[in-house]
Fold this sequence. Notes:
Mean pLDDT: 86
Number of helices: 17
Number of domains: 2
CATH superfamily of the largest domain: Alkaline Phosphatase, subunit A
Strand content: 5-15%
Structural class: alpha/beta
Largest sheet: 6 strands, mixed
Low-confidence stretches: 147-153
Order of helices and strands: HHHEEHHEHHHHHHEEHHHHEEEHEEHEE
Helix content: 40-55%
Amino acid sequence: MLLGIYAAVGLVGVNISQMVFSAGVRSIIVASIFSVAVYFVFCWRIKDEYKAALLCAWFMLFFFAYGHVYGSLEGLKILGAVVGRHRFILPLWLLIFGAGGWWIYRQAGRIGSLTRILNLASIVLLIIPVIQIGVFEWHRHRTVTGTGSVPKPSLTQGVPALSKDQLPDVYYIILDGYPRQDMLLKYHKVDISDFIKNLEAMGFYVPSCSQSNYAMTNLSLASSLNLNYLEGLNQNIHAIDLPKSIIDSRMRQFLQGLGYKTVSFDSGIWFTELQDADYYIYKNQPVINSFFDFTRLSEFEVLFLRTTVLLTLEESKAAWLDTLTQNPRKVGYDRILFEFDQLEKSPALPEPKFVFIHIVAPHSPPFMFNADGALVETKSTYQGLGDELLYLNKRTLEAVQAIISKSKNPPVIIIQGDHGLDNEVRMANLIAYYFPNGGAKVLYPTITPVNSFRLVLNTYFGQKLPLLPDVSYFSTYEKMFAFTKVKYPCP
């Protein structure tokens, strides 16, 4: 029984840094009720509580582990034949667990001792993710409530004596995983030259040799928003509170000190949602309401279902998850459309303002948009990336055109991929700068995001910050702080 509860709690623990705990509560409750029900069914049928408990544990392993095993074997080839498919794996899975269940049922000896040992092991196993979730939620609470440490502003240069009516709005637009132009063409045969030309025609400077400083969102944004490399924030980089460094960044603190209002959006990624912003713009209903909304599944709930034996139903022609409830991918799709719509309207908000928006696209497969903006699910990068970028580029151009044309004062705009897409060129990202009134003269082809806001502050706010060396540090999710310097050839 405890194994079924662990399946949900453990998955929450693994993903807690990328989600809010409330998104997993329903899964934990349902898994707990399901596990208790299965246990009592076995007790009712077998009349032996120890044997029933052992059979229940065996069934929980069968039901909740299948998706993990299938994910490891999917596409596996033996002698040129693809055997990593449900039609081959599921019968073998049923055979193994049928044989194991029959063996347990036929046992009559030390089942009680074995059951007690497994119960103890299950309790220990369950405690680990509970502690993991508890520690992370406590840490998150400190971040959101403003306790704990975060780099403080150390900008001491005088700011030009401008009235609030003269200060430029500052826009920081993150397109998640958007690669650099030359790498897109080389690795994916995707040509975005028209997009770049249109940006340049509007007055943007698009550096030809830009690279990100880090290979993942939290590292990249913690660095760029605090105008420094991670070791510059804390020599012990493992001790850096990355979410808090993003939510309560040095750049945000500086601008708020000048009277700027902060504008943020519901991104679906909790540490890029500045929910304490002066204007926090969200589409989805509050959690307390969505908890009782059974017309749709959350993204985590879909992930959880796909770890179970129910994954086998997806090989049928009917997209069973999409017909069972509202398509969870559509939730992300609608969120991105909403973000673009609201971004176009943002110039109407009171000035001056710092607008931070994280759009989780193109990100990675499966891609959600076709070239016309309709919802699709394309798992192939070769097929889907080009179409998705055509639509994202169109919406981005419309948004920045609206921002420029509707702003009272010429705004400062940075469009940036927090990193690229592929591991082999992960650090080659898109950056585009709109520095009005001749400000673009300070920009250069090899710039990295760590210097973006240094140049903004120097150019428009009277600071004299030295530029840092432009260096890219690659790392993997498994070893986030094991950095390797990388540099790619430039056009």
